[in-house]
C-alpha cells in the first residue's frame, strides 16, 4: 500500500492536539516533500529519518514521498514526530503492516543510528491518548512519565528496530509497568524551626487554610522568607487531577522529577525577573513562573524591588486563575491558580520603626518606595502582616503546638469543610457563593459596613475580608461567622488598601 497514516501529538502550551502523519509514495524521481506547517526542527526530520531507516537495516523507498502533518494550520515543532514519520514511511513501503498502527500514537526523536531519544511534553500527550482510547508508544526514557496517566497502555522502545519488530509481531513488547517511583515525597522544612513570630505563624495558618494571598512586611532578618518557605508543608496533598496538571506543566518545560512527584510547587523568582519570565511568553509561548506555581506557592521576596509593570501583570491571573498569551498566529491559555506570598521591608533601608532609631529614610523616600506597589495589586492580597523583630536567643526553647504536622492537620480539617460545603477553597468563592456561605447577622453586617467605611476599604477588599473571616470560622469548626472572626480578619487588612 502506497498510503499510510500514523497518529501522533503536537504541543501547544500544555495541550497536546492530535496530529495525523500521512505518508504517500508515488512514481517519479526520488524526492521527499514535507508539508503541514512544519518549523525548522520538523523540516530537518526527513534527514534524521532517512539515516535512521537505513542504519537500522530497512529499505528507504526510492520514490516520490509526500509527508503531510495534518491539520495543516497547526504549527509543528521539535523532533517529536520522527518516530511516527519513520513508521509511516515503512508502512507505506509495506515493511510494517498499516493495520497495526491504527490504534497507536507515536512520539519520539530519532538519532541517526535509529535510537529513539526522549522528548518533552509526553504527559499531556499521554492524557490525550488515554482520552482517545489509544495506545501510546514513547521512548523508554519517557515511559515512567507517560505512566502517570493511569489506565493508559504504554509501549516503551529504545530503537526503531524494536518498534518495527513489535508491529510486525516478531517480538511483541509488553506494556510498560511503573516501578513504583511515582509517589515519593521529599519532606518540607518544619514550622517549629521559626523562632517566635506567633502572629506570623497564625497568619500563615489562615493563609493555608483558605488559600489566601499573604504579604509580610518587616525589617531584614525577621524570618519573612523562612516563614514563606514553610507554607507548602501546611497545604493539603494534591489531588490526582491537580497533581496531573502540575506534572503536565513540568513536562512541557523540563523532565518531571519523578522522585518528588506529586508535590506542590514553590517558585521564588528573583526580583530582576521580566514580565515574560513571570507570566510566560516568547515567539512560541512558554509557561512563566505563575504557571510553574500552579496549585502551589509563588513567593516574591523584596516585592517593591520588582519592576512595577512586571507586578501589574499579576492582577488578572490572581482573579481568574489563568493567563492568556496572545500572539499574531495563536492564543495560548496557561493555568495559573497559585497562592501568592510576598515579603517587603517597611522602607528603603528596611529599619523603619526600629527602637534603635537606625532608619534615616525621609518621608519622601518612604512614600516613593511604597508607591512602587499599586493599590489594585495590594487589594488582591487578603492578609497583610507586619513581622516584628524577635529575641536574638540562639537556642530558644521549642514552642508547643506550632510544628508543621499539627498545623497541617488543622488546615486539612478546614479545607475538608470547605470542600464539603462549596467545593473549593474560600479564597476562590465567587459572588453567589460568598452570599450563600458568608452570611452575617444584621448587627454584625452593620458593624462590618461601618468598619469598611472608616477604613475606606473597596468592595473587593470587603469581599476578601469576608472570605478570611469564613476561613477563621472554619478553623474553629464554626457554622456561622462571628464578630470575633470579623475583628481578626480586619487586623489583616490595612486601611485604604
UniProtKB/TrEMBL annotation:
Keyword DNA damage set for record: no
GO MF: ATP binding; DNA binding
Record has ATP-binding as a keyword: yes
Keywords in alphabetical order: ATP-binding, Nucleotide-binding
Record-linked InterPro entries: AAA+_ATPase, CHLI-like, MCM_dom, Mg_chelat-rel, Mg_chelat-rel_C, Mg_chelatse_chII-like_cat_dom, P-loop_NTPase, Ribosomal_Su5_D2-typ_SF
MCM C-terminal AAA(+) ATPase domain ranges (all copies): 286-387
Family annotation (NCBIfam families): PRK09862.1, YifB family Mg chelatase-like AAA ATPase
Family: Belongs to the Mg-chelatase subunits D/I family. ComM subfamily.
Protein's name according to its UniProt entry: Magnesium chelatase
Gene designation per UniProt: comM
Amino acid at each position: 500500500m502506497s498510503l499510510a497514516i500514523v497518529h501522533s501529538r503536537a504541543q501547544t502550551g500544555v495541550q497536546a492536539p492530535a496530529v495525523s502523519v500521512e505518508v504517500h509514495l508515488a512514481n517519479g524521481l526520488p524526492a521527499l516533500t514535507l508539508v503541514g506547517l512544519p518549523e525548522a526542527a520538523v523540516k530537518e526530520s526527513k534527514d534524521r529519518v532517512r539515516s535512521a531507516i537505513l542504519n537500522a537495516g530497512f529499505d528507504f523507498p526510492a520514490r516520490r514521498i509526500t509527508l503531510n502533518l495534518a491539520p495543516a494550520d497547526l504549527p509543528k515543532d521539535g523532533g517529536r514526530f520522527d518516530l511516527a514519520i519513520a513508521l509511516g514511511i515503512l508502512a507505506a513501503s509495506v515493511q510494517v503492516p498499516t493495520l497495526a498502527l491504527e490504534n497507536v500514537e507515536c512520539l519520539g526523536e530519532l538519532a541517526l543510528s535509529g535510537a529513539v531519544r526522549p522528548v518533552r511534553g509526553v504527559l499531556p500527550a499521554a492524557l490525550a491518548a488515554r482520552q482517545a482510547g489509544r495506545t501510546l508508544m514513547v521512548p523508554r526514557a519517557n515511559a515512567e512519565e507517560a505512566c502517570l496517566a493511569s489506565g493508559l497502555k504504554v509501549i516503551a522502545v529504545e530503537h526503531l528496530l524494536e518498534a518495527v519488530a513489535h508491529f510486525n509481531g516478531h517480538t511483541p513488547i509488553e506494556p510498560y509497568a511503573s516501578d513504583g517511583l511515582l509517589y515519593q515525597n521529599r519532606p518540607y522544612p518544619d514550622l517549629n524551626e521559626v523562632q517566635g513570630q506567633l502572629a506570623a505563624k497564625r497568619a500563615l495558618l489562615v493563609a493555608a487554610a483558605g488559600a489566601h494571598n499573604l504579604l509580610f512586611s518587616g525589617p531584614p532578618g525577621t524570618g519573612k522568607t523562612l516563614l514563606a518557605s514553610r507554607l507548602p508543608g501546611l497545604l493539603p496533598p494534591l489531588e490526582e487531577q491537580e497533581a496531573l496538571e502540575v506534572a503536565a506543566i513540568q513536562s512541557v518545560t523540563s523532565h518531571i522529577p519523578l522522585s518528588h512527584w506529586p508535590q506542590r510547587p514553590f517558585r521564588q523568582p528573583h526580583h530582576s525577573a521580566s514580565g515574560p519570565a513571570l507570566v510566560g511568553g516568547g515567539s512560541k509561548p512558554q509557561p512563566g513562573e505563575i504557571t510553574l506555581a500552579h496549585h502551589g506557592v509563588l513567593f516574591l521576596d523584596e516585592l517593591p524591588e520588582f519592576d512595577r509593570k512586571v507586578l501589574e501583570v499579576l492582577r488578572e491571573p490572581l482573579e481568574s486563575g489563568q493567563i492568556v498569551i496572545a500572539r499574531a498566529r495563536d492564543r495560548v491559555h496557561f493555568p495559573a491558580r497559585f497562592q501568592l506570598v510576598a515579603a517587603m521591608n517597611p522602607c528603603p533601608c528596611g529599619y523603619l520603626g526600629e527602637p534603635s532609631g537606625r532608619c534615616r529614610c525621609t518621608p519622601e523616600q518612604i512614600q516613593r518606595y511604597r508607591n512602587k506597589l499599586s493599590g489594585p495589586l495590594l487589594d488582591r492580597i487578603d492578609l497583610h502582616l507586619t513581622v516584628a523583630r524577635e529575641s536574638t536567643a540562639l537556642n530558644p526553647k521549642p514552642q508547643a503546638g506550632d510544628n508543621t504536622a499539627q498545623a497541617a492537620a488543622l488546615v486539612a480539617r478546614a479545607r475538608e469543610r470547605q470542600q464539603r460545603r462549596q467545593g473549593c477553597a474560600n479564597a476562590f468563592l465567587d459572588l453567589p457563593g460568598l452570599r450563600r456561605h458568608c452570611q452575617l447577622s444584621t448587627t454584625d453586617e452593620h458593624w462590618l459596613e461601618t468598619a469598611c467605611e472608616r477604613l475606606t476599604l473597596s468592595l473587593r477588599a470587603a469581599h476578601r475580608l469576608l472570605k478570611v473571616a469564613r476561613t477563621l470560622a472554619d478553623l474553629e469548626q464554626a457554622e456561622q461567622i462571628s464578630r470575633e472572626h470579623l475583628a481578626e480578619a480586619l487586623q489583616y487588612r490595612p486601611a485604604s488598601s
